[in-house]
Amino acid sequence: MMSCRQAALLDSKASFSALNPMEAVKLKMHLKVCTSCQDFYKDSALIDEAIEKITQQPEKQQMELSDAQRNKILEALK
Predict the structure, then answer these.
(1) How far apart, in whole angstroms, are the C-alpha atoms of residue 17 and residue 37?
(2) Residues 61, 27 contacting (CB under 8 angstroms)
(3) What share of the chain is helix, strand, coil (3-state, %, to 5)?
(4) pTM of this prediction exceeds 0.85
(5) What string of H, E and C letters represents the secondary structure of 22-73?
(6) Torsion angle in degrees (nearest 10) through CA of 11, 14, 19, 21
(7) Which of these, 7, 15, 49, 78, could form a disulfide with 30 (CB 3.0-4.6 Å)?
(8) How far apart are CA 1 and CA 18, in angstroms?
(9) How far is CA 75 from the centre of its chain?
(10) pLDDT tens digits for the chain (78 residues)?
(11) Could you tell me the end-to-end alpha-carbon distance of the chain, in angstroms, rounded to an integer?
């Protein structure tokens, strides 16, 4: 079984490139049994989504978050 640290590294790697089949299976297996890493994975996905929205906007346009979005981010960071 892979460690949580290894799972976090693979999760981060998956944000930038495709995992090889063995890495993907190992990460999936780890996420099925580790609730801490499940939470990390959800938080990481939320952050990736926010970054994606920010980078898709024109430079001069500022991103405005709704109260619900702001609260969701704050809850994820707790």
Answers:
(1) 19
(2) no
(3) 75, 0, 25
(4) no
(5) HHHHHHHHHHHHCHHHHHHHHHHHHHHHHHHHHHHCCCCCCCCCCHHHHHHH
(6) 60
(7) 7
(8) 21
(9) 14
(10) 899 999 999 988 988 899 999 999 999 999 999 999 999 999 988 998 888 888 887 765 666 788 999 899 989 888
(11) 27
